[in-house]
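Final report, Chapter 2: Outcomes

The project's central promise was a pipeline that accepts a single protein chain and returns its three-dimensional structure in a standardized token representation, suitable for archiving and comparison. That pipeline is now operational. To close this chapter, we reproduce one record exactly as it appears in the project archive, with the input sequence first and the structure output second.
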Amino acid sequence: MFKNVVINFEIAKKLTKLDYGFIDTKFGEMVMGHSVENGFLHIAYLHFSEGRPIDHFAADMKKRWPNADLREDSEKSQRSFETYFQKQKPKREVYVVLTGSKFQNQVWSALLKIPYGEERTYTDVATMIKRPKSVRAVATAVAKNDIAVFIPCHRVKSKTNDMHKYRWGNELKVKLLNDEKGKH
């Protein structure tokens, strides 16, 4: 995983083409929706597949980008992912495209401020965005994150340390956190 994630709000407004497909990662099979802009890979969608067919994700992306030309190509997606991440130096930025509401984008941006390998509570995140009474809304926004791993929703937990609410399961959350902490 990368520590340097750059949010590109401008691309979200202009996204007219989106390639997507299954990719294999060290965390399991994922579906990546991406665009190459100015020679840089921009990730707009990254979900764990959990055995679901590609049509499930295509329909979800079509709802988010109804005017975009969606092109399924798992080989291209895998190649783009591997080429970009194998060529990059560890300090290179990862570009992500956020398409949520103003509030969701605030929450997702705040998640990027959680130090690599550390965790925070939903209350902490609500405080970070100066909305301390919006804990439930923060939890909902965290759960709707469309860019797994790079927008680190796995770093957020409840006050009671209940990790069973992680969208893609407790086992995967522990795996992601252990990877960040160098525990393999």
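Archive annotation: Residues 74-87 form the longest helix (14 residues).
This record, like all others produced under the grant, will remain available to the consortium after the project formally closes.
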